[in-house]
Amino acid sequence: MHNSIKQLGAAIAGACLIFASASYAMAETKVVMLGTGTPVPDADRAGAGIAVIYNDEAYVFDAGGGTVQNAIAAAQKNGIDALYPTKINHLFFTHLHSDHVLDYPELLATYWWRRDNPIKVFGPAGTKGMSEGIYKMLADDTKTRLGGNQPIVNPDAAYADVTEFSKDGIILKDADVTIEAFAVSHGSWDSAFAYRVTTPDRVIVISGDTTYNEKLRDIAKSADLLIHEAISHEGWSGLPENWQDYHAAAHTISTDLARLANETRPKLLVLYHVLHYRAPIGSTLNEIRAEYDGDVVLANDLDVY
């Protein structure tokens, strides 16, 4: 009898181990493009936003205007539950340009009274001040909800748990997910960052807004996905000289991105935040393909990789 119990216990333990291993093996990293646009208004593209999803946890990078509605669409229409607003627990900012942050208030305010915990927000200097401004903007709304008879799961969830950083390094290590930030060059911004996300099955590099950057080149070598901003050379060439100067100091012209791609050789290069002005948006993709023979795609909102 004693041996039978021991054998049963061993069998159960073995089954649990097999189940855990299978669950681990089934975990697959997905990337959802929540917004692929720029400061130029575009009815088909929300502001910048990218979600990396692993093991049913979403790590969102930037929150441009319209990204929260796209997250809701991804959750309710496409079955990506981790992107329902109350389930988004991590938000990272590359920098604080308006087209990367305008939906931050939307994300904070959406159904916060049903959140278990405050959303964790990571960003460069200024992120705390921006957050305080949102709290002030929503002060009457928050006061009314907290002071009335509305059911609230966690009153602290009305506010974000904000961490600012200023140096390169690991920003978050969350179980099997490691997120690193690296300073990049974006015009007059003192604090603009790219991110490298490492999960058990993929390495994903997100450029944020930047010019050609040697540090980004180094961290992106052989990445599974390099998600990079771009500006069409054709579109840039047609701009007045002062705008050419501005963009050359703030963004990566397609020919420079082709050079970067040849140096890094990602498994897939994903173009987003594409400035093209009077040139067709596809000109950027064509210009890169003319000089780079690797896999490259032009992302649209809600694309999944």
Explain the layout of strands and helices:
Layout: H1 2-26, E1 30-35, E2 49-54, E3 57-61, H2 67-76, E4 90-92, H3 104-109, E5 120-123, H4 127-137, H5 139-147, E6 161-164, E7 169-174, E8 177-183, E9 193-198, E10 203-206, H6 214-219, E11 225-231, H7 233-237, H8 241-250, H9 254-264, E12 268-275, H10 282-289, E13 296-298
Parallel strand pairs: 3-4, 4-5, 5-6, 10-11, 11-12, 12-13
Antiparallel strand pairs: 1-2, 2-3, 7-8, 8-9, 9-10
Structure description:
With 305 residues, this protein is of the alpha/beta class. It has a single domain (29-298), classed as Metallo-beta-lactamase, Chain A (4-Layer Sandwich), CATH 3.60.15. The chain is built from ten helices and 13 strands. The chain has helices at 2-26, 67-76, 104-109, 127-137, 139-147, 214-219, 233-237, 241-250, 254-264, 282-289, and strands spanning 30-35, 49-54, 57-61, 90-92, 120-123, 161-164, 169-174, 177-183, 193-198, 203-206, 225-231, 268-275, 296-298. A seven-stranded mixed β-sheet has the order 7-8-9-10-11-12-13. A hairpin with a 2-residue loop joins strand 2 and strand 3. Helix 9 crosses helix 10. The longest helix has 25 residues, at 2-26. It is globular, with a radius of gyration of 21 Å.
